Fold each of these.
Amino acid sequence: MTVVMGIETSCDETGVGFVEDGVLLGDALASSMDEHARFGGVVPEIAARAHLQAMVPTVRAALDKAGLGLDDVGAVAVTAGPGLATALHVGVAAAKSYALALGVPLYGVHHLAGHAAADTLEHGSLPDRSVALIVSGGHTSLLFVRDLVRTPIVHLSDTFDDAAGEAFDKVARLIGLPYPGGPSIDRAAREGNAGAVAFPRPLTAPGDPELGFSFSGLKTAVARYVEKHPDTDVNDVAASFQEAVADVLTTKALRACRREEVDTLVVVGGVAANSRIRALAQERCDTAGVELRIPPMRLCTDNGAMIAAIGDLLVRDGAKPSGLEFSAVPTIELQQAQLC
Ligand code: KG4
Ligand code: ZN
């Protein structure tokens, strides 16, 4: 059996994890989130510099947690894309250095495949057929998944404009809540009334694309509402907005399950950490007789364990290593778990 080291640097988290045969041995995370807060969003140069500083200490911290030494590492997996170019370069360069120094194979992997693989650390292998809802800061997609590393991943739909996480971040800014917006809105919403404002449910009218998403109109609706009601309760707006997103995401995810005739829904990515989305997805899956799989909250947002998890699946499947010549790929749709 092979211990796989996973390295993630696609955005503002430096993540390192160790997985062997589907089991998470230990992981560690450093974040430059606080350095971006005053800019209201991630500044790529700041993120890249923070990755450079955090990389080796985070590897050491993860090794300690796993009770391993570098000599135990049998393969390295790294996020090759998508993500911020300068941030990805740091992880890819570090992963190449470790692979070269240790004389072990290297795998360049797709960040979103990592998000999906995170769930296997908690709930074991995915079933033969499932629908995955990937909701992150940069992506919102419904996918038909068979074998994560063997079978091409089929896109059932993507967002036409903003990603769900992007909508959370932008709406938080509009209503004066701190970056990152998702967790801020989640917290504020607990004190608010989700029925206070009837925000629109985009693309749910008859004739609209059945599985398509769009969040920029919803964001504009929130902007209009707060313009017209300057004294409104921020918690009510947060709760009502969150309810609209949760409603649309879960309605369409279950529609996709029905259409594809699958009985497992996997919800992954940073926005899958949202408490209302988790609860509503569970409620609706129970009613529909669909099994819901969501990773534990700390494995929903970016981390190194999920990259080690997809690397471990590739290694066990006998995939050909990526070599040392590949570069980061900042923009690429998820079709294959291995990118290079
Ligand atoms: O997957 P992720 O960590 O990074 C990307 O690959 O983009 O997702 C980050 C996104 C951010 O937009 C953040 O606001 C959102 O996930 N997020 C949440 C929550 N926690 C993180 N959105 C809603 N509720 C949360 N609790
Ligand atoms: Zn992510």
Amino acid sequence: MTPTAPAVRCDGVVQIYKTREVEVVALRDIDLVVEDGESVALLGPSGAGKTTLLWLLAGLLRPSAGRLWLGGAEVGRLGPRALDRLRAAQIGVVLQNPARNLVPYASAAQNVAFAQRAVRRRSRQRTDDLLERVGLAPLRDRPAGLLSGGEQQRLAVAVALANRPRLLLADEPTSQLDAGSAAAVVELIKEMGPTSVVVTHDPGVGEAMSRTVTIRDGRIGAEGRDGEDFVVIGREGAVQLPPEYHGLLPPGSMARVEPVRDGVILRRAEP
Ligand code: ADP
Ligand code: MG
């Protein structure tokens, strides 16, 4: 990654899953820039496309259309080995299913150490520090497969941070944690993941991040900064009204657009 490039840039990214019978458009026209140092909470209902976007940012999927840069490197122009190297050196990932991040028969400490070996930065001290930070120091020698779901989730975060990634991507990393452990994990991510994108349903996690991005129906519908929420005007001028206003302007209803000095007002056209 080049130091001046943003950590992530998506330009018109589209992701289509093709199964035998149907094509699912999981993401359409995603424009997104994440600057170095930002922490982004990715919000949105189930099926909106959050996991798909995270997989794209992790280099685990290549976009069906559009362009995606991780650091200065355009994913579409990297061969498989160059992409693997970039991922191992620069990106830490916590997948949605905690067990999938871990080697089940290896101990908690070995799982963290393996992740460091991938970039030849192994250090016993760092392993112990990370396990301590996620509250797993007493369980360091237990096989990961024998940990509870919440313990596996905390271990997965430690593993993702083990190689000091420039970009940390985490998919609902606190879904199985109580409030106290969730707060500790968020603290750790903010401290050690200098740039992070975290999918979450937890409003507490969203508040801890510098920015929120909300996806609905495969599009970025809203963004929040410093506690204020904004809708995002899409490529063709499309706006997703927040669901709390669907009562005033139900989907499918007609509205008048009234220009004013600094924007427009939408008013329902009475039938
Ligand atoms: P979220 O994480 O926001 O719940 P996903 O990214 O998992 O959403 O899914 C977005 C859409 O893509 C959903 O309609 C989902 O059913 C579909 N989808 C996800 N993965 C696949 C796949 N491997 N094959 C086909 N469809 C998929
Ligand atoms: Mg998901």
